[in-house]
Amino acid sequence: MKVVIAGAGSVGRYMADQLHASGHEVTLVDQTPAVFDRFGSEGPVTWFLGDACEVATLDAVSVADADVLAAVTGDDEDNLVIALLAKQEFGVPRVVARVNNPKNEWMFNEMWGVDVAVSTPHLLTAVVEEAVNVGSFVRLLSLEGGDARLAEVTLTEKSPAIGSAIADLGLPRESTVVALIRDRHVVVPRGDTVLRPNDEVLVLVTGDAEDDVRRVLVG
Amino acid sequence: MGILRRRRATSDGPVPADRSIVTIADAPPRRNVRVCGQVTRMRARPTSGLPALAVSISDDSGTAIAVWTGRRAIGGVALGRRLVIEGVATRRGDQLEFMNPEYTLLVR
Amino acid sequence: MHVIVVGCGRVGSTVANELVARDHDVVVIDRRREAFRRLGSRFTGTTMTGVGFDRDVLTRARITDQSAVMAVTSGDNSNILIARVARETFGVERVVARIYDPKRAVIYERLGIPTVASVSWTSARALRHVLPDPGHSDWIDPTSTYALVERKVQAATAGVSVGRLDEAGLRVVLLTRTGAARLPDRALLVQQDDLIHLLVRADATADVDRALVEVGANR
Fold first, then answer.
1. If 0-12 CB within 10 Å is exposed, 13-18 middle and 19+ buried, where does residue A50 land?
2. CATH code of the domain containing C172
3. Does residue B88 belong to the interface with chain A, where contact is any CB pair within 8 Å?
């Protein structure tokens, strides 16, 4: 895949290295010469010095052919504008954007061309909550501009779902159990998979089904 | 006189002949294209409480969708209206979707 | 009129003072308190420290759909965010954004946000986007028979042909659409947000807006 990453801070550079290691064609864009001087000549990733908020820069790095654009600068305004340009002017199929200030998270959706918003503070909080709140419903990730959400629940003995097969749970139509993590193994869920205490259930929910899913799994 | 700013001005008919229009079926995604069709469907597509208007435009070869963010309506855009859409479309499933394209109203 | 000016640089402070001089209710928002010093002692409006696209800040600035918003910070991206939040979240119709990068301006015009390029910026031009001034003419001929007026096409008039407008005494001599000016053909249909320069009888300038609505209704 061709990936363009706007923002060569530690997040952008890490992503570039990881994606390149996985065999993707990666271009990093940043407008700060100092970053470029320090890191640019190292490694096989392509670098471009320029302002990703400008159409000319996006053109120069062939965003028109990119499969993914990730706007991961440390500035939410820049990330939103880059995302909008990528989606509206270049038709990039998948636009990922980083949310720096959670107060701005409400804008990171299809209104600004964002397919996936990643909020580091939000994720960190979710990861902490996951560790702390066994038994509660934790939202991990929003997809499709917020319409689909990946959430996680670790089942306690008190969960009403214990002892039931997934097919018998009565989960709403707009949800699906994506995976179970049981004894540190990933279990591919089937209709006849019976839920046990300490199962970590990963659910994909769309629409308004979250409350129903919570009721079924948590009570 | 002159508060009219001197700008490059062009004379224009309803559909400029020099920029060619392609059929929706032939329109390549990810490239600037012009398509011409009729409004066959209009839908509100709100996101997180913010409005957006999704308009289906059909010609003989197929249907594309134009989405205008932040709006509930656009003057003159109604069922049956013929118009030209110009922009860069993303492929969403098997349909082309334009985000905030340029549009030109044609006579019904 | 209630006007919110975001950005208290040289431009913002000038515009704010002009608005106060015309008896409008002005709120100036800037991230930095020191910027308000530029307003001077004659400024009788309100100042507020904060981010101009923050919904809470705008609410505290008493924004309503009857307000006008001028996004005149030194950053294009901020100005666009402010303009879109004002329009889309709060329903503000009278919005103008100052833009430095002309290529970005075209894209933002497609979002329905009038922009004024910083090179051709004058307070007068910007204020015309937000303050209604129906009697104003850009030019009157030496015999005072005809006047040139500028109007933004509203939804009520969208879809009417230039020829039809001419028959109604509203001759469109120049039409500007998404930042590009053209000499329109009689067959061209005007569209919402088009800027039209009309040549009308000098004694009829006060009736232009009503006439535009009437033509729309009787098409």
1. middle
2. 3.30.70.1450
3. yes
